[in-house]
Design a protein that fits this description.
281 residues, alpha/beta, Spore Coat Polysaccharide Biosynthesis Protein SpsA, Chain A, 8-stranded mixed beta sheet, 8 strands, globular
Length: 281
């Protein structure tokens, strides 16, 4: 059964497990079961069976997704399912991070993921507070449509101008040291597409060590929002974000690092190749 955030079942703690995998979900009945199985295979290989749990946050699905989430919780009983009433990716992500109790948290997209990034981030987990995957960092492996690239570039340019953002993307998959970032996770006030951007900006201004690496990115289905509508939303979101971040000062030097795709693949290529061969992607 899917739980509310306040359910006492959350007292059945995941403190002794090393990793939570937070996945916001909305109307994914066509891919959810198979993709969770694939991700479970990967995390079993990377972390060991029984050493991780899913936190699946359904935000307002109107198809068979809630039933499939319940089935997933039965399949992986350490995991948790949460149901939110309204479609809101940022609220789902924020809820998942706030109920997580493990030290390390992966944020994963149910539609696509990048095994080299996740493997490299885990191998280097003690070196940084936040690992960010960027679809924009390497144009040779970014297969977005040109108009989507333009929209992403425009939004990122505004983040750089308005907030002094040093990177290329705030919305990609992540590995977080939750214990280090906990106060910032709890302090975030925005939702929808602004939550993870606010969290990244708070981490940078809080002098947390943030590392960005490129991932291969392919769009596998049409976007759910019209481009013009998304532009309007982004402009309104930037106004809200600017108002919130005015009260968040820089607490020290910016600790922002970058690695190339070659760096990631060269760190331990046999291990990455082995995982990619044994896990369907």
């Amino acid at each position: 059964m899917l739980q509310s955030v306040d359910s006492p079942a959350w007292a059945v703690s995941s403190d002794e497990l090393p990793v939570s995998v937070v996945i916001p979900i909305y109307n994914e009945q066509l891919i959810l079961k198979e993709n969770l199985q694939t991700l479970a295979q990967f995390f079993d290989r990377l972390l060991g069976t029984g050493s991780w749990l899913f936190i699946l946050v359904d935000n307002g699905s109107t198809d068979g997704t809630p039933r499939l989430v319940e089935e997933a919780i039965e399949r992986w009983p350490l995991s948790r399912g949460i149901r939110l009433a309204d479609p809101n990716y940022g609220a789902a992500l924020k809820t998942g991070l706030r109920v997580a109790t493990t030290k390390w948290v992966f944020v994963v997209d149910i539609e696509q993921w990048d095994i080299p990034f996740m493997t490299w981030a885990w191998a280097n987990r003690t070196s940084y507070d936040m690992f960010m995957a960027s679809k924009r960092a390497d144009p040779t492996i970014n297969f977005q449509e040109p108009h989507r690239r333009l929209l992403s570039a425009g939004l990122n340019a505004m983040l750089q101008v308005l907030f002094g953002f040093s990177g290329t993307d705030t919305h990609g998959p992540k590995l977080l040291n939750r214990e280090s970032l906990e106060t910032m996770i709890q302090a975030c006030v925005l939702d929808r597409g602004q939550f993870d951007t606010e969290l990244v900006l708070r981490a940078i201004r809080g002098a947390k060590s943030v590392v960005e690496v490129p991932i291969e990115y392919r769009e596998s289905r049409p976007h759910r929002n019209w481009m013009f509508k998304k532009i309007v939303w982004n402009l309104l979101a930037l106004r809200r974000l600017r108002r919130v971040m005015q009260g968040v000062p820089f607490e020290g030097y910016v600790l922002y690092y970058r690695f190339s795709r070659k760096d990631v693949l060269a760190t331990n290529p046999p291990a990455v190749a082995d995982l990619m061969e044994q896990v369907r992607v």
